[in-house]
Amino acid sequence: MGFFERNRKDLAAKGVDPSRLPPGQYSTDRFPVLHAGSVPVYKDLSSWDLRVVGAVVNPLVISWAEFMALDAVDVVTDIHCVTKWSKFDTSWRGVPLTTIIEMAQVKDEATHVMLHSEFGFSANVPLTDILSDGAIALLAFQFDGKELEPEHGYPLRFLFPKLYFWKSAKWLRGIEFMSADKAGFWEANGYHMYGDPFQEQRYWGD
Ligand SMILES: Nc1nc2c(c(=O)[nH]1)N[C@H]1C(S)=C(S)[C@@H](COP(=O)(O)O)O[C@H]1N2
Ligand SMILES: [Mo]
C-alpha cells in the first residue's frame, strides 16, 4: 500500500470520515509554512491598515484598532494545500468578510474579490462563494487561540478553506471588489483560477 492510501486508511481507523480528505491529498498534524518571498516584520501596528477598494459605495481604510473593535467569530475547519497536505479541525478567530462587505456597501456589479497582501501577493475568489450559505470567509487574526505566527500571516490573513489554501492570503492589506474575474499571483503563474480541492483544480487545465 502506498503512502497516500495508507494515510487515508489511518484516518478511518482514527474515526475521521475519509471523505473529508480531497483526492490526491494526505492528512497531517503539522502546519507547514509556504509562501513566495519573505515574511514582513512589523515593529508595531500603528501604521498598519486594511484598505477596501473597487466596486464599493464606501471605500475604507481600517486601522488595526478599528479592526479589533469589529465583532469576531471562531471557526473550526479543514484546510487543503495544493502541495497535497490537508490539516483537519484547524481553529481560527477573525472577522467575517461579510462584515466588511456590509461596511463598504459593495455594489451589485461586484462579482469577484481580490485579496491583496504585502509585497504584491494577491488571490482572487468569486463573491458568490463568499456569500453562499455556511461559507467560511474570514479575516483571521488568531490560530489556535493565539495571534498568528509571523510566517503564518501575522497580523491578519484571509481564510477561505473551501478552496485550496493558496487563496488564503497571508499578511492581508487590501480587499478589492471587482466586476470581472482577474488572476491573482498564483493564478497568473499556472494555478487554477478557482481551485476546488474536491475537484482537484490544482493547475491550469485541471
Ligand atoms: N501573502 C502571501 N500569502 C500566501 C502565500 C504567499 O506566497 N504570500 N502563499 C499561499 C500558499 S501557496 C499557501 S499553501 C498558504 C500557506 O499558508 P501557511 O504558510 O500558513 O501554511 O498561504 C498562501 N498565502
Ligand atoms: Mo500553496
Automatic annotation (TrEMBL):
<feature type="domain" description="Oxidoreductase molybdopterin-binding">
    <location>
        <begin position="37"/>
        <end position="186"/>
    </location>
</feature>
<dbReference type="InterPro" id="IPR036374">
    <property type="entry name" value="OxRdtase_Mopterin-bd_sf"/>
</dbReference>
<dbReference type="InterPro" id="IPR000572">
    <property type="entry name" value="OxRdtase_Mopterin-bd_dom"/>
</dbReference>
<dbReference type="Pfam" id="PF00174">
    <property type="entry name" value="Oxidored_molyb"/>
</dbReference>
<protein>
    <submittedName>
        <fullName>Sulfoxide reductase catalytic subunit YedY</fullName>
    </submittedName>
</protein>
